[in-house]
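Form 7-S
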Amino acid sequence: MKNDTTVTEFILQGFSDIPELRLTSTAFFLFIYLFSLLGNFSIIAAVMRDSHLHTPMYFFLKNLSFLDVCYISVTVPKALINSFMGSGVISFGECVAQLFSFVMFCASECFLLTSMAYDRCLAIHRPLFYGVIMSRKLCTELVIMAWLSGAVYAIFHTTNTFSLLFCGPNVIDHFFCDNSPIMRLSCSDARTNEEVEFAVGGCIILSACALTIISYVLIISTIAKIHCTEGRWKAFSTCSSHLITVILFYVTGSFAYLRPSSHYSPTQGRLASVFYSIITPSLNPVVYSLRNKDMQVALKKLFVPSK
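Output:
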């Protein structure tokens, strides 16, 4: 990272450029953030408390909820505080830390969703070997690998972004320190950094997506061979929530990041990031609660304890 930069702080534009909408948008995102915390912490508590949910699928779900809490908490609280205080100032060091943390949590979630697809594939495609292969040790190793992989990619991503020279202006047209709007502020040539970042990020996302697709091809082919309609529906219902989560994650994430910098629009980038970094982690608990009867029962026990 360069030490000769003259920029010591950045200014975040916030959720909206329109002053009249700032209070409304702040209240809305505060509600979404609290809703996300409640939903994800409820999932974590339900899985930890209910012994019936001490299985690999819910072990991954618990970690997914924790990741959702982490990466929504990296950006939204700071944006809310800046909005309430009427100041979008964030120090250079805070900006570096925010970008690193956000990328690490998002990348880790990408790898974790791939592990969850593998888990569902084994459960449906190889049910007789599932209990032997998907041990507690393997589940833990997959989660640790997801976190480590996310951290390694975040180091590359952050270094690639902040190796550029920043000498002004310092106003980031976003509500958090994201790489595209930051690179646009660089007073050095950022084209090579953008191309490298696009290539590496695209390879990682497409590779994880390809592995997930392969898993679901095997899942669907196995389900198609089940003669009983009820059996097919029961098998599909065990992975439908994960499939919805994967679609939400990749569609919003790809729209936000898999675009050349020449097509970058601050307004579209901010809107895409809202769906990717705020709406999606808030919807995951809803998806798993509505589509999963075991989770519904566990949540009911959590909030309505039996007398």
